[in-house]
Amino acid sequence: MIKRLIHICFAFAFVLTCAGAYGQNADFVAAYTFIQQKQVDSAKVHIDRAIKDPVTAKDPQVWYVRGFIYKFYYKTKESDNRSSPARVEALKCFRKSIVLDTAHKFTSDNHDNMKSIATRYYNDAAQALDTSNYKVPILNFGTYREIMKEVDPSIDLTQKETEFSMALANIYTNLYNKSPKTRDNFLELAKDCYNKVLAVQPNNVSANYNMGILYYNQAVRLIKGADYDIDLTSIDGIQDDQVKLFKQSLPLMKKVHELDPQKEEAIQALSGIYFGLNDFETSKHFQEMIDAKKKQNQNPEKKEK
Amino acid sequence: MKKLVIILVGLFLISSAFQQKEDAAASNAKCKVIFLYNFTKMIKWPDEYNDGNFVIGVYGSYPPLITELNKMANVKTVGSQKFEIRTVTTLEAATKYHILFVLNDKIGQFSEVTAKLKGKGTLLITEKDGMMKKGSMINFVVVDNKIKFELSKANAEKQKLKIAHDLEALAVKGND
Fold first, then answer.
1. Using CA atoms, how far apart are residues B28 and A238, in angstroms rounded to an integer?
2. Which of A157, B43, B45, B59 is the most exposed place for a label (fewest CB within 10 A)?
3. Domain end: A81, A103, A121, which one?
């Protein structure tokens, strides 16, 4: 809020000092005046006229102010609209201002406003991401990434990209789980997301675990979903596919166990994978580890001794 | 700035959520049930076994198998015979079983089982190495991480059971 007021004061001072230069463009001055009074609709009308005036059409400050007014319009009137046209327009204005601003007088202000818009896109992506609405958040996150890279090409967005990919993978997995037989495209999308994460963070426990569980569940469901009438040759083929999937799950879950030996979900999953591979001795070994942990949790005194 | 931090936390919670895993034991049991259902179509029982329910007994404890057998019993039949699934705790010689699946926790009593059910037309199924030599007719084995089965035509014939050639061909080995 304070920052915005500083901007407005700065801008208004600029109008006063430059009144001579822009005196002939009443719309530009009027837009300033109206936005200072928070009369954004009127400010919008005048600034839209100002950019059509040949005298001010190529002025970076005019475009910066227009961006500011449209951003203000978005925040006051379209903040619930994740595809807000005013926000898109504001972004265009800041970009145009940067292009016209060969003296780099407004670069910092333009960048600050673009980062502020980027943050809004990121927030929208995070808030809206759910199983019924995931396409707009994907676009919003893409816009966030694009703006941030534009403002600072050296910025490292790995952490945020990872978080978003993980969240998206969970959404895809939930969509797949709702109807595994008809929605296996979501399974592949989820795997793509986890692969993206694992490419940059091979030791990410959640990504390894969830990817392992995807393969594991896919394997289990192959048989669970099979019809009783399938013949013995077909069941052999299903088992072949099942073994492949369990074996894809195994190294991921082993890695989780290495990274976090206390993680009970991974031990449980390892027991399940070996059971699925019909290696009952190894499965039992991991099950006994779980049982021992449960016992230990029930009698914490013994642990201390 | 404050808002950004709140949202980052929100995303982190979503992104670190662990997916739930399915039950491998249920899958293993379902696989065996599919085998069993196929056996009912490829083995012929003596005529006196064609009336009443088709009885499958499970001797020993493996709850997922009972669950999966009951699921099958709800939707499938053997000809006009309905399936009847029984958990066997004490083996009664008088009971007429079409199939008796002797699990490993009761395998120590297998000689008693064969003695009680001798010549009674019961298909004895086991899942432990070496059981064919002890009178089992079908024995589940693990080959390359997959469930397969051994079959003894000779043991089956002693129980007056007729095995289809196709089933013999699919068995991994027998002691005949």
1. 12
2. A157
3. A121
Residue after which a domain boundary falls, among A92, A121, A150: A121
Count of the separate structural domains present in chain A: 2
Beta-carbon neighbour count of residue A110 at 10 Å? 25
- The neighbour count for residue A102, using CB atoms within 10 Å, is 8
Whether the full predicted model's pTM is greater than 0.80, yes or no, is yes
For A231-285, the pLDDT digits (tens) are 999 999 999 999 999 999 999 999 999 999 999 999 999 999 999 999 999 999 9
Which pairing describes strands B162-163 and B99-102: parallel, antiparallel, or unpaired?
unpaired
C-alpha A145/C-alpha A121 separation (Å) is 9
Question: For residue B22, which residues of chain A lie inside 8 Å, CB to CB?
Answer: 216-217, 220-221, 224
Candidates B14, B75, B142; nearest CB to A170: B14
A48 in any annotated domain: yes
Structure tokens that stand for A34 in this block = 């109206």
Residue numbers of the domain that contains A7:
1-121
Q: What is the ipTM, given to two decimal places? A: 0.88
Q: How many residues can be counted in chain B?
A: 176
Q: B84 and chain A: CB distance < 8 Å anywhere?
A: no
Q: Look at B31 and A166 and tell me if their CB atoms are within 8 Å.
A: no
Residue B19: what pLDDT?
64
Closest Cβ–Cβ partner in B21, B35, B72 for A232: B35
Question: Residue A88 and residue A79: Cα distance in Å, rounded?
Answer: 12
Residue with tokens 């594991």: A216
The domain spanning residue A23 has which CATH number?
A: 1.25.40.10
Residue A41 lies inside a defined structural domain of this protein: yes
Q: Would residue A70 count as lying in a domain?
A: yes
Task: Using an 8 Å CB-CB cutoff, list chain A residues near B170.
Answer: 232-233
pLDDT 10s digit of each residue in chain B, 176 long?
A: 334 444 444 554 555 556 666 788 999 999 999 999 999 999 999 998 999 999 999 999 999 999 999 999 999 999 999 999 999 988 877 678 999 999 999 999 999 999 999 888 999 999 999 999 999 999 999 999 999 999 999 999 999 999 999 999 999 974 44
* Of B16, B4, B10, B3, residue with least CA distance to A129: B10
- Which residue has tokens 């006063």? A16
Check if B18 contacts A (Cβ < 8 Å).
yes
Interface probe with B: pick from A147, A209, A232, most Cβ of B within 10 Å: A232
Answer yes or no: do B14 and A209 touch at CB < 8 A.
Answer: no
A97 in any annotated domain: yes
